[in-house]
């Protein structure tokens, strides 16, 4: 009887472990899923495919090196008219999260507003960004399985952030830094930061990590 109870208790503990792991991971990690203080309604970017993966998409796995996607970064950054170094630095910023498709979908069930793909894009941001673009027929649910699509969507989201910036602003942030803040916190917050509003702790942390990743991002895309 005691042994049977012990076996049942052991099975219960193994069933609980994945849920606990998911919850613990969400509590200790930051990033685009959390966003920044004073979030506006405008969406920020930072998860069964209904279409074929983009050309050049690599097979997803739990761990990856963003530098492996330098060809896609250079391609889509050029198409979107943005800095390839910025796009790569964003991927490094977002690499804190295990990018295994099965894990992302499990996490999305636990946290429905989670982001998908190696660029950690939210559904609303993806749906807004794809309008009128060559990936307009693609779905947000495809992002975990198609990393090239994730890079392409992130590039055009950054393009849209750039278009929202004024010609001049009084703050000390560079254009790329503001676009990164917009990627993390949304266009409304980005505009406020450009006017001189001080970013909250999460947005500040995102910018610090971007600066830390800037040099290796440049090396990665120099290829």
Describe this structure in words.
The chain has 223 residues and is mainly alpha-helical. It has helices at 2-28, 70-80, 84-93, 101-110, 123-129, 147-164, 175-185, 187-195, 201-222. Helix content is 56%, strand content 0%. Helix 6 (147-164) packs across helix 7. The protein is globular.
Core attributes:
9 helices; disordered N terminus
Low-confidence stretches: 1-41, 47-59
Query: Approximately how much helix is present in the residues?
Result: 55-70%
Structural class: mainly alpha
Q: What letter string, H or E per element, gives the SSE order?
A: HHHHHHHHH
Report on the biggest sheet: none
Separation of termini? 65 Å
Please report which band the strand proportion falls in: under 5%, 5-15%, 15-25%, 25-35%, 35-45% or over 45%: under 5%
Task: Describe the structure concisely.
With 223 residues, the protein is mostly helical. It is 56% helix and 0% strand. α2 (70-80) packs across α3 and α2 (70-80) runs parallel beside α6 (147-164).
Walk me through the topology.
Layout: H1 2-28, H2 70-80, H3 84-93, H4 101-110, H5 123-129, H6 147-164, H7 175-185, H8 187-195, H9 201-222
């Amino acid at each position: 009887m005691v042994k049977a109870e012990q076996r049942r208790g052991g099975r219960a503990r193994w069933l609980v472990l994945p849920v606990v792991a998911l919850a613990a991971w969400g509590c200790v990690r930051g990033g685009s899923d959390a966003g920044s203080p004073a979030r506006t309604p405008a969406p920020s970017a930072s998860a069964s495919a209904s279409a074929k993966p983009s050309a050049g998409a690599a097979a997803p796995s739990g761990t990856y090196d963003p530098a492996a996607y330098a060809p896609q970064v250079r391609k889509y950054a050029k198409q979107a008219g943005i800095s390839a170094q910025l796009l790569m630095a964003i991927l490094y910023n977002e690499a804190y999260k295990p990018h295994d498709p099965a894990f992302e979908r499990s996490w999305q069930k636990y946290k429905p507003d989670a982001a998908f793909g190696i660029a950690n894009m939210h559904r609303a941001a993806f749906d807004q960004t794809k309008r009128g673009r060559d990936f307009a027929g693609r779905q947000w649910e495809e992002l975990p399985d198609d990393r090239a699509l994730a890079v392409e969507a992130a590039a055009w989201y950054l393009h849209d952030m750039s278009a929202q910036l004024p010609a001049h602003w009084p703050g000390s942030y560079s254009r790329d830094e503001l676009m990164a803040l917009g990627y993390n916190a949304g266009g409304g917050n980005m505009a406020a930061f450009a006017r001189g509003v001080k970013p909250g702790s999460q947005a500040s942390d995102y910018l610090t990590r971007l600066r830390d990743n800037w040099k290796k991002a440049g090396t990665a895309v120099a290829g």
